[in-house]
Specification:
The structure is a single chain. By secondary structure, the protein is mostly helical. The protein has three domains: 149 residues, no CATH class; 42 residues; 99 residues, no CATH class. It contains 14 helices and five strands. The strands form two sheets. The protein has a three-stranded antiparallel beta sheet with strand order 1-2-3, with no helix packed on it. Strands 4-5 form a two-stranded antiparallel ribbon. Helix 3 crosses helix 9, helix 5 crosses helix 8 and helix 6 packs across helix 8.
């Protein structure tokens, strides 16, 4: 089931990334700076108060149009998003976010070529050759360029932009934007992608704060009662496969507050299940919510104290 869950997550990521790239080209969503308004599903989306500004209507009509076209859709979007985040946490990050898709791509390349996931951690096996670094850098820079062009197409007519790009006939403004954006995204993707996700993304921080406020929200739970199986796994592998699988480099077995930036990608669960596939009890990490999620943010010492009190109560009853 979890493998199919990972496949579903990867399919969702790929589909949303393609939507992110092609939405401007298909006029699904973009803001056209040359026209000065949004285009949604091929239709111009404006407040339509120009006639009112020039004496063609009254203030009540203007207020109704602003409320119905701006405030109401905005409130509805924020409310629905907040409800989903309240229940599921940063699931947008792990299942849809185009930036996180690049994070995972570069993570995989860096692990295969350099035996580490970030430039800031020590490699399991040192590799000082130049070629592996080039193999990591080229896709990262290519993705940075794709991101830069995609963002430019959200603000300028995409077809003429791409035609000018292919014919090397871009104007100074778009050329400057794409060049600077490519450099910035390249630095991000190669050196600071995890730091950005943890501390620099306002959307991610917003999701984490709402998620932390709900102690019954969906979260990864570690079966502390079977900790021996986990110790045996660490002793065998010399590292924690679950922590190694986490793209955000989080302590997957720890309390919820230590996993503030968890993206609900469930890779730690899949890694644990793979290691424990011959164990009849299964993996030690699971997705839980409700009352089971409340226990995740309780210190291990609290669990031990509760277990001692429970045993005392049982003896007294007997």
């Amino acid at each position: 089931m979890l493998m199919s869950l990972q496949q579903a997550r990867i399919s969702a990521k790929v589909a949303f990334f393609m939507l992110f790239i092609f939405a401007p080209l298909l006029n699904i969503f973009r803001f056209d700076l040359t026209l000065g308004h949004f285009i949604i599903f091929g239709q111009a989306w404006t407040i339509s108060i120009d006639s009112i500004l020039y004496g063609g209507g009254d203030s009540i009509d203007a207020a109704i149009k602003i409320f119905s076209r701006v405030l109401l859709p905005g409130f509805a979007f924020v409310a629905i998003s907040a409800l989903l985040i309240w229940k599921f946490g940063r699931i947008y990050c792990g299942w849809l976010c185009p930036h996180f898709s690049v994070v995972e791509l570069v993570n995989d390349l860096m692990m295969k070529q350099l035996n580490r996931v970030t430039v800031w951690e020590k490699a399991s096996i040192a590799n000082k050759q130049v070629l592996p670094r080039v193999i990591v850098a080229i896709p990262a820079i290519a993705m940075a360029f794709i991101w830069a062009v995609a963002l430019a197409s959200y603000m300028l007519p995409p077809i003429p932009l791409l035609q000018d790009l292919v014919t090397f006939n871009l104007a100074f403004g778009p050329s400057l934007f794409i060049s600077v954006a490519t450099v910035v995204f390249s630095i991000d993707f190669i050196f600071a992608r995890h730091i950005f996700c943890k501390y620099g993304c306002a959307l991610g921080l917003f999701q984490s704060l709402i998620w932390m406020a709900n102690n019954k929200a969906m979260v990864i739970k570690f079966d502390r009662g079977r900790a021996k199986a986990c110790r045996d796994c660490i002793h065998y592998h010399k590292y924690k496969p679950c922590d190694q699988a986490c793209p955000m480099r989080l302590p997957t077995q720890n309390m919820k507050r230590a996993k503030f930036t968890c993206t609900q990608c469930v890779q730690c669960v899949s890694a644990c299940n793979e290691v424990q596939k011959h164990n009849p009890d299964g993996g030690l990490l699971t997705w839980v919510s409700g009352d089971a999620a409340v226990e995740v943010d309780r210190p291990a010492s609290k669990f031990k104290a509760d277990e001692i009190e429970t045993k005392i109560e049982i003896k007294e009853v007997n």
